[in-house]
Amino acid sequence: MATHALKLSALAAALLAIHPSFAQSSLPAVTVSGRNADAPVRIGGWGDTPVAKLPLQANVLNSERLLDAGISNLAGLSQLDASVGDAYNSAGYVSYLKVRGFDLDNRFNYRRDGLPISAETALALGNKSSIEVLKGTSGTQAGTSAPGGLVNLVVKRPDVQLLALSAGVSERGTLEAAVDWSQRFGTAKAFGLRINAAGAALRPELRDAQGERQLLALAGDWRISPDTLLETEFEWNRQSQPSQPGMSLLGSKLPDAKAFDPRRNLNNLPWSQPVVFDNSHASLRLQQRLSADWRAQAHLGVQELKTDDRLAFPYGCSAENAWDRYCSNGDFDRYDFRSEGERRRSQALDLSLSGKLAMAGLQHQISAGLLLSRYQAHLGPQTNQQVSPGNVFIDQPSPPKAEPNDVNTNREERSSELYLRDAVQIDKQWQAWLGLRHSRIERESVRTDGSRATNYPQNFSTPWLGLSYAINPTLMAYGSWGEGVESEVAPNRRRYSNRGQVLPALKSRQFELGLKSGSSTVDWSVNAFDIRRPLWSDIGACDDDIADSCTRKADGYARHRGLEGQADIKWSGGGLLASAMKLKARREAAIDPAMNGVKPTNVAETSIKLNARQRLAALPALQLNAGLVYEGARTVLPDASLSIPAWTRLDAGLRYEQTRGKQLLVWRAGVDNLTDKRAWRESPYQYGHAYLYPLAPRTWRASVEVQL
């Protein structure tokens, strides 16, 4: 991979040779981190309306902020926003997030420039200008999705003149190199091209997890006329790295995090192979201004994913007849899991019209459109065979069993979504916000051996209402209510009495009240929310050997009520990005009375995230950074009988800007987990098993960026 980094450097030199006039005549391109409240939220669907004026909560994190924090994947968002948490984040694997205590669905809760994509892969951030996190029910932005919120990745476009080269080193020898080149050319600069290329040799603190990562992305546009813009872009990225299985309970005991080596990887067998994510994305977008107030847009996107999912997988303890934990002495059952050649394809076409009009004496800002999307997952037979047991303390190699012995499930979904949004200016202070989305979905699934086929259509509508009041030019109060939808079918398995039957759509509902303020020195907001999400449960013995032994049916709901506060404070030479959330998440109205009032697993009820920056008066080019992450206790088991303790992590870093002629050098250095804190970071309960993931140990990083 060091060779790959040298190739990237050679590419950068070639770009300079091709465009020497650009390198000699252009001033250094300095990225300025603007106010979060001034940024529009593309995923919100309200055009260029800034965050501070919307009756909802959202966070826009630009690429500069992510670089300063050393964040290279979506899992890193959990250190910048108190409402965002980990939800089964394994090194080398897919990032899973939760927002307001609800796990985001990687099939339906992610967008790329506003179009739906699958996040069942390692999504690259090197060619993204920002990441938007929309909080709360997402029914007006998505046909089906989990209620926590949505995440949108915004692609870098050729909107600047830039040539930036960067290189970095971290951990036990991770090497990274990247090129970001953007140029406009032609008559009146009508054409633009931006190229992002990056490569990394991954050598993390986690042992036996060496890998590599590459990215190549191109974005171009053609300003056909002052009223017409055509944009296209393509991205290819690849990551190959062994993933990290979770630790677990040892019998009935929670293992001591201080005694557990966070560098230990239970996927350390000689025959373990890396998980490989091979991804490509492409899009074409045409924007047409019809008049001073009206615009039309057509946006087409295609995503192709190929995955080889492989793991020496610890699961359960047959010796003690306990399938949700490891044995008391550290033993565990081990499985050779391989699902190779998985292919997923997402296609989306969004046709929209937006503009302003006066009607019934009121000013309206309207957006209407049609979103057509299709998702396919074609998977082959998989291997899931038990091999010799392992132990969390002692390496015990075992022979692999790589012959496929199990089936997978292929899925296909088509959706048609009609949406309408209207922001009504009632007077100088009052504004009403109305949204409605009508969706029709058609879903099919079948196992790879042709068995257990399901096929069903479903229709539903999701409204959203908001009302805002401008107390003064910088302070706004708001309230909102909305619905979201999830769709499910009873598994087509012998044990279910209603197998293969479509279940009524799960309609979540959210109420929210808040205050927002934005000025040149501070942007802040406080809000309270209440989300109710219906739940399904398997009722009965649920024995695969007994037909019709259980039924999947509605079983109460999850209710998440919380208080959020966030602030972006600026002062001369520095600032503070702060957020906090207090969450009360409970199970209510369950068929089993013992489950009423129980906390969900892996949800921290208190979260605080602080990121401070300060330039030194004696050395203005130097900026010191400090970060604090506090996460409250999380339950481990569904009955909430056991919890992992709260923990606090401290981070530190610096940024130094150096001008050499017309070049700008940005030096960055940082250390994550400064005090080398030992704790269980999260406690996901997945696949009927309790897992524990440790805080990563103290990790150093350094990089340099040259803007020519």
In short:
With 708 residues, the chain is mainly β. Helices cover 4% and strands 55% of the residues. Strand 14 (275-289) and strand 15 (294-314) form a beta hairpin.
Keywords:
4% helix; 22-stranded antiparallel β-barrel; single chain; 708 residues; disordered N terminus; Maltoporin, Chain A; 5-stranded mixed sheet; mainly beta
Description:
With 708 residues, this protein is mainly β. The protein has a single domain (2-331, 365-390, 410-707), classed as TonB-dependent receptor, beta-barrel domain (Maltoporin, Chain A), CATH 2.40.170. It is 4% helix and 55% strand. It has three helices and 37 strands. The chain has helices at 2-18, 20-25, 63-68; strands at residues 57-62, 84-86, 97-99, 102-103, 110-112, 115-116, 128-135, 149-155, 162-170, 174-185, 191-202, 211-225, 228-241, 275-289, 294-314, 331-359, 362-378, 383-391, 409-425, 430-447, 454-472, 475-486, 506-518, 522-540, 550-571, 574-588, 606-616, 619-631, 634-635, 643-644, 647-660, 663-672, 680-682, 685-686, 689-690, 693-694, 699-707. The strands form six sheets. The chain has a 22-stranded antiparallel β-barrel. A five-stranded mixed β-sheet has the order 1-7-8-5-6. A three-stranded antiparallel β-sheet has the order 2-3-4, with no helix packed on it. A hairpin with a 2-residue loop joins strand 25 (550-571) and strand 26. It is globular. The relative contact order is 0.13.
